[in-house]
Amino acid sequence: MANSAQARKRARQNVAQRDRNMSLRSQLRTAIKHVRKAISSSDKSNAQTVFQESVAMIDSIADKGIIHKNKASRHKRRLSAAIRTMA
After folding, report:
1. Mean of the pLDDT values across residues 64-75?
2. In angstroms, what CA-CA distances link 32 with 16, 45, 54?
3. Quick one: how far is CA 27 from the chain centroid?
4. What is the number of helices (H) and of strands (E) in the chain?
């Protein structure tokens, strides 16, 4: 347990930040799942629409430092490639 007032405040802040980060990371995973589901449904126009919405979310989460920018770029590149290979 924290002994000083500063350490107690820091512990409270850490809990709040952890909850916020977990929520954003969950939103990221959900957005990626939505794109993959749209890709598997074989509807290219729908997949592109969902992908564009997800790209904005992925970028904002990377800007906040929840995930690394390279990881965000990798997700976008792989999803984009999967959409391009659709018939």
Report:
1. 96
2. 25, 16, 7
3. 6
4. 3, 0
Residue type, 14: N
Residues of the domain holding 50 = 5-84
Q: What is the CATH number of the domain that holds 39?
A: 1.20.58.110
Quick: pLDDT tens for 19-38. 999 999 999 999 999 999 99
- CA–CA gap between residue 45 and residue 76 (Å, rounded): 17
Q: Number of structural domains, the chain?
A: 1
**Amino acid residing at 56:** A
Q: Tell me the two tokens of residue 74.
A: 């990798």
Could you tell me the CA-to-CA distances from 14 to 11, 20, 44, 45, 58 in Å, in that order? Answer: 5, 10, 42, 42, 23
- CA dihedral sign, ordered 80, 84, 85, 87: positive
Helix 44-63 with 5-40: angle, nearest 10 deg: 170
